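Deviations from the work plan: none for this task. Representative record:
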Amino acid sequence: MLISIFLQALALACLSLAMDKHYKAVVHGALATRRKVALRILGWISLLLSFGLLVAQQPLLGIAVVDWLAWLSCNILLVALLLCWKASRDSVTH
Amino acid sequence: MKPDFRKNMVWLHTYSGLVMGWLLFTIFLTGTLAYFNPEITQWMKPELQKVSNTANMLDRSLDELHARGEGASGWSIYLPNNRTEHWYIQWGEGRRNRTTLSLGPEVKQVIEPRESAGGNFFRVFHYTLQLRGYGGRYYSGIAAMFMLVAVFSGIFTHRRFFRDFFTLRISKLQKALTDFHGLIGIVTMPFCIMICATGIMVYVIMYMPFSSEHYVGTERQLSSVLSPGLDKLTPKAPNSSPIADFSEVEKKIEMAWGEKQIRRVTFEQPFTEAGRIIVDRIKDSTLSRQSDRLVFSAHTGEPLKGYLPASTAAEVRRVFFGLHEAHFADTRLRWVLFLLGLLSSALIASGLTIWLVKRLNKVRKRHLSHFLVERLNIAVIAGLPLAIMAFFLSNRLLPVMLENRAEIEVQVFLWTWLLCFLHGFLRPARNAWVEQLWATALCCFLLPMIDLMQDSQRLLEAFNQLNLPYLIFTASILIVGACFMKTAVWLTGKPMTNKPYKGSDKSSC
């Protein structure tokens, strides 16, 4: 259960880093196309994997879907807050 | 002239949000609290003791019913489960005229919990708005419809949010608010659509009366055609007595469902030949609102023919209803849904604030509408939490034996809220914000202290018995208090201009 949620957060983090804007803010460098594709693939695969894990653990598919979507919302917010925090910390140090 | 689609959508988003925003905020916040309905009741009735580990609960309930409910036309037994420690029995005639008795862990022990509106107040308030019989449920249905409109038009209004996914800039207040609104909008979009659509489905028969008039006659008849009940029992003279030993029936139930799956046992006409027992399963393992049911004969304990399967339409509605109420959610998922509910409330609050901040930044002379929106924002966004805290405080401060105590608690809630409206309109905006936020924070800190002073044993016992609802409620109230205090301090520290600022409860951004 926890693994699945963590995997979902990780997936969203990868997907956010696959966007030029966020990559630049975190790594301070340009995002190469190959890395972008790699991050995207990794993100989507982990996202699917997290869903699969949750479905495997929960006997009722319906509840698993609700669960996964609810966590998806929270994890998007979490990733956004982390990026926001990182950006504000950088703007203080520079 | 070609109509500009996006412009129309922005207009629609702005004004559907504005017109219904305050009502929606109220519904969302109280509805979110209703996720913890039994847990809040548990806190509001501290007399309830831990009973869920008691042995032979069904037989003990049955003994009490035999002793007290002689000749009644209906008996019910409500068992405690992992969300509530309230174990009670009811007997009487019909649905209204019933006597309730709460049972305790010791043999023959009866508990008398204080009369309180409990967490159920939030559940009922969030769709009737305390206006049952005056169209309350229609207003909330209309509000839900407006929310759906606002969500869909919001997709076009904040169209950049796919390019700006995961983006939150906090350099300037208005930008931060808009980013926050857009981000929370997309984060809670599935939740909002689910909640509004399912909320409308709950009373769909009432909202569309023409279909029931067309097909069968009245709304009630349509429900019974869609989801057939059992055959009607005609009350006859008492000529038979209900079973005294439930263990045989219990064995059969455990065969079918497993252990600890019973939520409620209802006896219909227990003293007649045709009397029957209906057993409801707990709702942990189904999305539907209607859990499984078994039917037995009341005086032999033999299984009877159960319920006929409901029509697809009724089944769909039940699943929608179940999704709305989320009885299936375990504690973890329930907290996530609770958080999403709070975020949706913050979404509405930030939307209302953006409307005002954006306009006040532009205009030189204020219009009456600016004043109205500003004051209503204060009264609803800051006033409602204060009224809720007053409701909780009244639960502890009103004399325990007071008559109509539950009703007076609700009155306290409503009057406090009215005072918040008056206060918001009479004071300068900034002061009104800060004062109401401080008042809420103060109430949050006072509540556990008053509780402790009234009965210091309560907290100790809660620790000993690991009464989680009680402990977590107390801790959450303190955290909420700290958040309100932080927001109030932050607002006070803002440079003094004639423009009001509001951080929509989330002081982090």
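Chain A touches chain B through 27 residues (CB under 8 Å).
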